[in-house]
Amino acid sequence: MKGDDATSGDRGSGEATGALAGGASAGVGPVGADAETVGAVDSERLARVALTRVIEPGDERGGRWLRTHGAVELMRRLTSPEDPDDPLTGASTARLATYRRRAAAADPEQDLAALADAGGRFVCPGDSEWPGQLDDLGDARPVGLWLRGPADLRIWALRSVAVVGARACTPYGAHMGAGLGAGLAEKGWVVVSGAAAGVDGAAHRGALAAGGATIAVLASGVDVVYPRGHTELIGRIAEQGALVAELPPGDHPTPSRFILRNRVIAALTRGTVVVEAAYRSGSLATARTAQRLGRHTIGVPGPATSGLSAGVHELLRGEAVLVTDAAEIVELVGEMGELAPARHGPVLPRDLLGPATARVLDALPGHGEAPVRAIARDAATTEDEALNRLYELHSLGFVEREGDRWRLTSSALRLPGARRGGA
Fold this sequence. Notes:
With about 425 residues, the protein is of the alpha/beta class. The protein folds into 3 domains: about 1-110, no CATH class; about 145-335, Rossmann fold (3-Layer(aba) Sandwich), CATH 3.40.50.450; about 350-415, Arc Repressor Mutant, subunit A. It contains 18 helices and 12 strands. The chain has helices at about 15-20, 35-50, 60-70, 70-80, 95-105, 110-115, 155, 170-185, 200-210, 230-240, 255-270, 280-290, 310-315, 325-335, 355-365, 370-380, 385-395, 410-415, and strands at about 120-125, 145-150, 160-165, 190-195, 215, 240-245, 270-275, 295-300, 320, 370, 400, 405-410. The protein has a 9-stranded mixed sheet, sandwiched between helices.
């Protein structure tokens, strides 16, 4: 591992490098591993903790450096004088200076201690709890994830669906978000969303109300409650499910961090369901990322006149699949045989008649009576056949006989689809 070099040479100015060299309290190494291996693992973990203070979510330049050099070596380079023969490339002098200032100020030991006090933990690639599907993000993959809650993130994410939508949603959007959250939870699926106002919060609440599992991916540190109105909701998720964040403890959300957070929601789950979204909604970014990653992209239709459904309808005109309930979502993202029930309208008594009998029934006038001859003519059949069908209809309560003439019963006239016109 290149990170082994962190214990030699010029360590630079910053407390982070000293912590990396020691490796104490950085985490637990592999069972049965020797001290050197454990030290390398712990140093890698500490370096990644520090880098969450340095590299912004979704920063592909930083992700490329991390992939190329490893976490420990990257931190060494950022906290040491630049090697003119082997510089970090792809960033301007001013931008690189920003990385260096952040690296010098990082204190991974303090961040780990702060999160431990809040009942949290840090996971990174190589850990048993790391969800491998996040690797699909390439260089935009998170450096690591800060977690709060009892859920095992990797296990829960294996059978999860994202439900996202507008913050300023309509009552319809809130109703659908809650209904889908509850329906998915009842079918054993984990509901993933962003804990935001509107559809996100409704989906989380629906899952919790159904006694189900839910994960909130935050655009802040896992110890920061945003929005404030969701203090109780976020607390319940931390107690029963999982709070997930790329940002270290104490960091606050910004507009760009909300957008970048969405790529984690898309990558973590099997599919993304958008309930309500205007043309410029961040929920559409989540859906399009899911699409690029080969995940299912799913939309819930709304009124054609609603601006909050315009973005969803645009998705549905493309690659997204229309759904109306949890069963239809599971049919898309679930295993073979997890099918939604067949949908059809009500079965009417007339639907059970054979074609020839139905033609005779149609030949009777809506009002008044008719002789067999006229009925047979209008039904394009013989009088004997018409009479046979009329007695069948009589036994079923559709018609009655008056002398040598026939008419519809009053109950038949009240049936849906009955003829209302004259003879």
